[in-house]
Amino acid sequence: MNTWAVPGYTESRELGAGGSGRVVLAVHDATGTAVAVKYLADRLRHDPAFVREFRAEARLLGGLHSPYVVGLYEYVEAPGGAAIVMELVDGISLRAVLKRSGATDPEAALVVLKGSLLGLAEAHRAGVVHRDYKPENVLVAQDGSSKLVDFGIAAGRGTQPGVAGTPAYMAPEQWQGEPASPAADVYAATATFFECLTGRKPFAGENFAELAVQHIEAPVPESEAPEPVRPLIRRGLAKRPEQRPENADAFVVELEGVARAAYGPEWEERGQRKLAALAALLPLLFPSAGAPAAGTTALATTVLPPPPPPVSWRPGRRGWIAAGTALVLGAVLVFTAEAIGASPDSTSAVSAFATTSAGPPGSAAPSSGPSPSGSASTSPSPSASVSPSASVSPSTSTSPSPSPSASASPTPTPTPTPTPTKTPAPKPTVVVGSVSVSLRAGTSVGQATVSLDAKGEPVTVVLEWFLGNYAGDLRVADGSNSLTARSGTLPPQSHTFTRGAGCYLSVRVTTVPAAGNTSDTATQLIPRCQEVPR
């Protein structure tokens, strides 16, 4: 395991971990400022696509200055690893709150929606689309305020970075590979709002194909929400982007009008108190539970050069999904599941850079706090292809500390300008002869080994995890993850159980394009259980 740490910080404990990295709580040695450090996973830092995505996330955060978006101190890249140093706010994920409460009061749900919409609005004004708004990426602070985190798969407005996101919250046009637009973020925010109100997602498809068809064709389930807020559900989940508010700013205006008319002028104060009360039921999940944050909150801004125009990818006709092949599209989605794999350590040098200029103190913004499954809000994926062009020597880079005494004015971060989409050249034919999987189960972690017989370009491999009451029981999904690979035996893929029920762990592996044998499934009895007859 890589032990590289960002110089100048003392780490105290891990806040969470996911398939693409981990987040740790640390203190800046020179000032005592508590920070959250997001590290790119060892197995990904040797993949240029993932490193480019990680850099792009740092560049984006450096250009967003809002109390509703996580703040950036610095980005550091060295031969030993890559890390984003972010401002820490004591908070927990909305997913943790919903897991504990099931649903929230309408006023609390409106507060969640407004706070995170204001974070989206800052990104939309900068020409950025988040593309992965969901409860895991909304942070609830101790005072009941809500804020937005994790821009790992964000893209420039109007670009076509490919099909990516979390299926339960993806807008119809996002399933179809349409250009990134703020209206898609409005859709995802409304889906999360619906979940806060009802305790369930708007659509409950059991696989990618069902979800795609439901999001594209099924009626908006507005009748399940409280009557006063149904206009927001109806507008935000409209099937066509032009039928929704055009961006987060416009949606906030509509939200405030509906909330005031339905619940009076004090709705926001009451909702924030209710949300704070729900968060207070989970005291051990706050970062301060293990090590109280101390120090000042000074914000430094990392200035990176503008990225080159992204190369887009777009699926074929919309009829693919309506015909039931949405599984092919959905399988290339980016997931933040528990699937950290190991990769051989490399001694090759990686260019290090962290051009940081200290700025004036900024408003507190959230870090990527722990989710109920223990996953960090880290989701860089190779679905977009922006990358910086600046680098310095391959030695560890140091940058000005996040000190409140710094007085230099920050240089504005250039905003990427959407450019005409280029049509990619035809790719060689990819043939997947077969796929197979073997599984080992521990008391809380499973490890799958996948073998792939393929020819041509790299293949997308999707692993779906299940817990059940008998061998081969695939009724209770427990997460999924995906990776790209070529023919051969792949590095073991690990998964930490997120559910307590069930004595059998199963994994189903599929590929894009589909393998000759379509899929393979393996099941193992969890050691803590005894054999249960079917």
Detailed description of the structure:
With 534 residues, this protein is α+β, with helices and mostly antiparallel strands. Among the domains are: 93-288, Orthogonal Bundle (Transferase(Phosphotransferase), domain 1); 431-525, Immunoglobulin-like (Sandwich). It has 10 helices and 20 strands. The chain has a 5-stranded antiparallel β-sheet, covered by helices on one side. Helix 3 (106-125) runs antiparallel to helix 8 and helix 6 (208-217) crosses helix 10 (319-330).
Give a concise summary.
This protein is α+β, with helices and mostly antiparallel strands and 534 residues long.
Mean pLDDT: 73
Which outline best applies? globular
Measured distance between first and last alpha carbons: 40 Å
Major sheet attributes: 5 strands, antiparallel
Key terms for this structure?
four-stranded antiparallel β-sheet, 534 residues, Immunoglobulin-like, alpha+beta, 10 helices, Transferase(Phosphotransferase), domain 1, five-stranded antiparallel β-sheet
